[in-house]
C-alpha cells in the first residue's frame, strides 16, 4: 500500500527520504561490488577494503533505518555509527594519495574497467550523501554517517586513479571544447 517500516517499527511512505537514502546506499554497495569484481580480476590488493566498505554500508543502512526521532535507547545503541570508520578511510586515502602523481587537470571517469567502475561508485556515493545530509540536518541520522559517505567518495576517487595507474591505463583529461 505504499508504506514500509523502519527498524523502530514506524510506518512511513515508501517515498520518505529515509527510504530514498537507504535505496541510494544499497545502490552504492552494488556499484562498489561491481567495481570490486573488476578489480579482483586485475588482482588489486584493495579489494578487501572494498568488501569492508560494503559491510560498513550495511551499518550505514541500519543507522538510516533507525530514525532518531522514534528510536528507543536500545535501537540507538544497536545502530550507532562511530567516527572510527571515517578515520580509517582517511588513512586509506592518504596511503594511496602518496603513491599518485599530482592532479594537474580535471580527469574524466576512465582508466580501464576497474577505474571507471570506481568512478561510477564515487558518483553514486555523492548521490547517497546528498540523500543523507538532510536526514542528519533534521536530527534523524548520526552525523558520522554523512561524514563517512563524504570521505568514501574521496576514497573512491583516489582508488580509481590508483587502479588506473597500477593497470597502466591512461586517465582521460578534460579538454575544453572549442566555441
Automatic annotation (TrEMBL):
Top-level taxonomic group: Eukaryota
SUPFAM superfamilies per the UniProt record, alphabetical: Cobalamin adenosyltransferase-like
GO molecular function, one term: corrinoid adenosyltransferase activity
Domain (Cobalamin adenosyltransferase-like): residue spans on this chain: 1-163
Pfam families recorded: Cob_adeno_trans
Protein keywords: ATP-binding, Nucleotide-binding, Transferase
Subunit structure: Homotrimer.
NCBIfam families to which the protein is assigned, alphabetical: PduO_Nterm
Protein family according to the UniProt entry: Belongs to the Cob(I)alamin adenosyltransferase family.
PANTHER family: CORRINOID ADENOSYLTRANSFERASE (PTHR12213), CORRINOID ADENOSYLTRANSFERASE MMAB (PTHR12213:SF0)
Listed name of the protein: Corrinoid adenosyltransferase MMAB
This protein's encoding gene: Mmab
Amino acid at each position: 500500500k505504499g508504506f514500509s517500516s523502519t527498524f523502530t517499527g514506524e510506518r512511513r511512505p515508501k517515498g520518505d527520504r529515509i527510504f530514498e537514502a537507504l535505496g541510494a546506499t544499497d545502490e552504492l554497495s552494488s556499484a562498489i561490488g561491481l567495481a570490486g569484481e573488476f578489480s579482483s580480476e586485475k588482482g588489486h590488493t584493495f579489494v578487501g577494503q572494498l568488501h569492508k566498505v560494503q559491510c560498513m554500508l550495511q551499518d550505514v543502512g541500519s543507522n538510516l533505518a533507525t530514525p532518531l526521532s522514534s528510536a528507543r535507547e536500545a535501537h540507538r545503541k544497536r545502530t550507532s555509527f562511530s567516527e572510527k570508520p571515517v578515520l580509517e578511510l582517511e588513512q586509506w586515502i592518504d596511503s594511496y594519495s602518496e603513491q599518485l602523481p599530482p592532479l594537474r587537470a580535471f580527469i574524466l571517469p576512465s582508466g580501464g574497467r576497474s577505474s571507471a567502475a570506481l568512478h561510477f561508485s564515487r558518483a553514486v556515493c555523492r548521490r547517497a550523501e546528498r540523500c543523507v545530509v538532510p536526514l542528519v540536518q533534521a536530527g534523524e541520522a548520526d552525523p558520522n554517517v554523512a561524514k563517512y559517505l563524504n570521505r568514501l567518495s574521496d576514497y573512491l576517487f583516489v582508488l580509481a586513479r590508483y587502479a588506473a595507474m597500477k593497470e597502466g591505463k591512461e586517465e582521460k583529461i578534460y579538454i575544453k571544447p572549442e566555441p
